[in-house]
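Interim report, section 4.2 (structural modelling).
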Amino acid sequence: EVQLVETGGGLVQPGGSLRLSCVGSGFTFSTFAMSWVRQAPGKGLEWVSTINYSGADTPYADAVKGRFTISRDNSKNTLFLQMDSLRADDTAVYYCAKTMFPRDSRTSPDFWGQGTLVTVSS
Amino acid sequence: EIVLTQSPGTLSLSPGERATLSCRASQSVSSRYLAWYQQKPGQAPRLLIYGASSRATGIPDRFSGSGSGTDFALTISRLEPEDFAVYYCHQSDTSPKTFGQGTKLEVK
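Predicted structure of the assembly:
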């Protein structure tokens, strides 16, 4: 059974940093691209970033480019999102998601974690 | 950036009725990379349709997807009580990947 478990969310002041983690199990983590998608309270889904299976390709949404860094440790089946210079409008539930087909970063996410809440407030 | 526009914003129907949700892209999207998700309050999104028309594992056959190019649709043939939720289309063809703003399917 595929499982994705996110951790690392919490309350942080504007300008602060936070690192999210997502541990995957039940699939061969190292062969799938992974994504972060966020959802602000009461709002829709917003793609944040995707990392290909090897970690070599990492596109970002314009809203987070230069402030967030996606990475992965395939030896630990773990996906990361380093978030710096956080702003109030980064407040959201952050989901990690696995792409559907191996070695294709463009395929749709098929499994999602339950999300971790990040609140940016003073 | 490919903008996905979903319509209607809210759809009010009764159980047993047919629902048709639309997703229009600002430029052509490869059908292979167009998906539909269902989200209920407090839950993560669930994949319903991938490749524009293929049902994900475990999805009932009352859900179907269609379309190509810039116009896509999700149809629910006969609404069940558990189908009332928010639905999103998503393109992962080109970065930035984008979602539609969602259609809320509510009980009439």
